[in-house]
Design goal:
With about 180 residues, the protein is an alpha+beta fold. It has 2 domains: about 80 residues, no CATH class; about 90 residues, Sandwich (Immunoglobulin-like). Helix content is about 15%, strand content about 25%. It is built from 4 helices and 9 strands. The strands form 3 sheets. The chain has a 4-stranded antiparallel beta sheet with strand order 4-3-7-8, with no helix packed on it. Strands 5-6-9 form a 3-stranded antiparallel beta sheet. Strand 5 and strand 6 form a beta hairpin. The protein is elongated. The model has no long low-confidence stretch (mean pLDDT about 85).
């Protein structure tokens, strides 16, 4: 097997073996993962792959992005949670019950912290406009906010929410059509 001969040769010369997985889906790694020093899933990073991979490997940036897919990982394999104190915070909004048909919770914005020291925190600002909580009223042909309490939640993901608040809209608000440049 290629990985056997390569990892043996590199380890005998005192060099680490790092495998970059440039793949669109999970692959089998159980049969060889203990023969290498690190596995970095790069997905399909695009034309600036070299720069982004080098930055992640040297610790210049934290590999703390979010994926739309679920990838199986062994407990303890997620190094970003341990070695890179940078996080992406996500803001979700739930519309008032009984208003227009909307999902239970919608992602309305996100922001990434700078590299933080252990125990350090950072205030994040994610602007939200009336358009962000409005829905298109097909019957009336306009954007509208529903009357009632909007529930804002902030956290690492939709499943790991850390704080929340409510904002009450007293009356339904009709908004002008958005311009194409907005």
């Amino acid at each position: 097997m290629l990985i056997d001969s390569l990892s043996t040769a590199y380890h005998q010369s005192g060099k680490p073996v790092i495998v970059l997985l440039n793949v669109p889906a999970p692959i089998e790694t159980a049969s060889w993962r203990d023969q290498v020093d690190a596995i970095l899933l790069v997905g399909q990073p695009g034309e600036r792959a070299g720069e982004s991979i080098a930055d992640a490997l040297t610790g210049t940036v934290a590999p703390s992005g979010r994926l739309a897919d679920t990838w199986p990982v062994r407990y303890g394999d997620a190094l970003a949670d341990k070695n890179f104190p940078s996080e992406v915070g996500q803001l979700y909004v739930s519309a008032p019950a009984g208003g227009m048909d909307k999902p239970v919770r919608e992602l309305k914005g996100f922001a990434k912290t700078r590299m933080l020291a252990p125990g350090e925190s950072e205030t994040m600002e994610i602007p939200v406009s009336l358009y962000d909580i409005a829905s298109w009223n097909e019957r009336k042909g306009r954007w509208e906010t529903a009357k009632g309490a909007y529930h804002f939640c902030f956290g690492k993901s939709a499943e790991e929410l850390l704080t929340d608040c409510q904002v009450r809209v007293k009356n339904c608000v009709s908004l002008p059509k958005r311009m194409s440049h907005e």
